[in-house]
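Structure Section — protein described below
Tokens — whole-number codes for backbone shape
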Amino acid sequence: MRYLLSCLFLAALGVYGAPTVEQIFNAGILADCQQLVYCENAALAGNALLAPWLDAKAAESVEDAADKDKLPAILKAVRAITDKMPMRDFSAVKRSQFCADWSLAVSDPKNAFKTVKYLLVYELQDAFSPEQAGSLITEEAKAQNMTLDCTFDSEQEILTIAYPGGGDLPACSIAFFHDNKVLMVGEPTVLQTAAAKVRRQIPPPTLNPVLQAARAKVTAGKQFYLLFAPDDNIQAAMQTQAPDSPAAPTIEEIVCLSFTVQAGEKLALQLGLEFTSPQTASMGKSMLLDGLFMGMGRMYLTQNAGAELPMLKTMGTSLDGNFAAFNCELTGEDIKTIKPLGQQILKSFAERAAARQ
């Protein structure tokens, strides 16, 4: 009887001591990050309006498939591995989170891969084990005739993948929680620190105050939000890219950018800009939101999709103290019409970025 009670007591301790999914998501946030993205994948995947956008296989065009052949072997392997992991399938994920500290990376773009700090957290519908991940990585490395080293630390439950022939390419680690249904991904040192804290249930460090305030303003019901709070290094890099732009002085006054999505019978989108003062917010609303999104955006959509597009009637801007916002609602007709336009814009941006390399 005493032995049975001892076993029950230890089992109870084990259950009590296991970190919750919420604790893992909190531990997956870097204190000094400037970008935080959160997504309720399951909720969005169940929305009929978003289904055409979220089908990864349908989204891959012939051009995308052709571009794969132009990639270096290591990037082909990375893409093949990523495509076959459950995280790539939007409907296989319950929710996800991404945070990044870009401060050092923007100061030295040539070494950005080595200096950017990031963490991703995925809560999966089904388990994805270290053995499955290791087998997948080994298989794709063999297909590309290269060596990828996989090391699994069974005590910490962390799988680390390194490319010995990659020179400066950083390694990547994956920590497994909750019977392999919650995964945390990141650079080995950053990830090991975060994983150790969550397993010991050490409270995570306080989030960047600007992002903390912005996240607190995200209202209930938003299934997706992106927050971006540029620090001094990022502001300097932004000004270097557009030193003579008329909008440069106004952009300097942006404290935080937010983008939220609420999916229901319509898709409600909001782009918010938090400024340093009500005066700069008023200027930012006039120049960036009224001028760029309402002016140029409306003109582009009217010319390319027609003046009867339903979303044009819902587009509007607002001002509340330091906060300026652009809002609109999309129907199924809007999404069907603007989807090819969006793909065209993204392709154009990608081609410009490639031309700068």
